[in-house]
Amino acid sequence: MSSLAAGIRNVAGACVLAGLTALSTPGSAQEQTQQPAETTIINPTAQGVTQQQLLQQEPRITGRITIPDSRAAVLIQPAGREWRAFHEVALRWIAAIAILGMLVILVAFYLTRGMVRLESGRSGRTIVRFNAFERFVHWMTATCFIILGLSGLNITFGKKLLMPLMSPDAFATFSDWAKHAHNYLSFPFTIGVVLIFLMWLGGNIPNRRDVEWLKRGGGIVGHDHPPADRFNAGQKAVYWIVVLGGAAVAISGYVLIFPFYGTGIGDMHTAHIVHSVIAVLFFAVMLAHIYIGTIGMEGAFEAMGSGTVDENWAREHHSLWLEKELREGNADGPRGPEPFSTPAE
Predict the structure, then answer these.
(1) 220 — phi, psi (to 5°)?
(2) What's the pLDDT tens digit per position in 110-142?
(3) Ramachandran bin of 95, using left for φ above 0, alpha for ψ from -120 to 50, beta for the remaining angles
(4) Which of 16, 118, 238, 279 lies deepest, with the highest CB count within 10 Å?
(5) Which helix (H) or strand (E) covers residue 338, if one does?
(6) Is 95 exposed, middle or buried (0-12, 13-18, 19+ CB in 10 A)?
(7) Whole-model pTM?
(8) Among residues 173, 210, 202, which one has the least CA distance to residue 320?
(9) In terms of Cα–Cα distance, which of 37, 123, 151 is closest to 313?
């Protein structure tokens, strides 16, 4: 009897095992049919998931968030990778070519042409070219522009050029202060651009004399001094670059400072591209302006330094403007509380 009972138990156990196997096999086959290995959805939070697996899953990867703004859930998207490639590669090449290229041109021009000297020497008489308010607006805008330019270049080149020269903590502190300076100084810079536009618009309308001035080299190439009004063709070009370029970097910059106010991620990327490309080209042009106003031309800095220029300088570079001032008597008497013509020291 004991052997018969043992046999019955063995047969029953075999039947149970066969039944469990039959029940489990179709389920596994069904799972394999419904979810092949090549279409398995990857869990971004799982351990061992590589970045390449995530990038291959979808071009756009999102996570789970608890805040109302669904855009914050986007972790990776094609536009972000394209923007990163632009910022890390294309922008650096554009900035390097524009800025270094301009510096090379200016150095070569100085070595071949040298400073543009006053050929008739100084007359000993000066005439007011820019009043105190005009000089204040110019220097306020120029100071803000230089700080904005350098702090902006730090975003593009600082990690490669500055961080190796200082500790990571020092570079982080410097970059943080540069970011705040960049944001807050944008407001007086914008005010300055608006004031420059309003102050000097009347004298910067292009005319036929500008074409002749350009044909004759403007007194920069060679030793010819074509007649010019208060602002010659070169200065008019700088004026419109400041006004239009300043407006473009200001508008695109404020889109970046105040993000997602009526803009999406694509709009933010576009604003950054416009802001950075125009800014580096703007910076390169201003290097030429700084060169002419300092070591490039004798007597030019005095116009924005003291506000007065020598009459011989005015006669060589802005003869039409000087003749007008002399006819109106502005070179011989006072103009308001400030003397308009003073002896040169």
Answers:
(1) -90, -45
(2) 999 889 888 888 888 999 999 999 999 999 999
(3) alpha
(4) 279
(5) strand 338-339
(6) buried
(7) 0.75
(8) 210
(9) 123
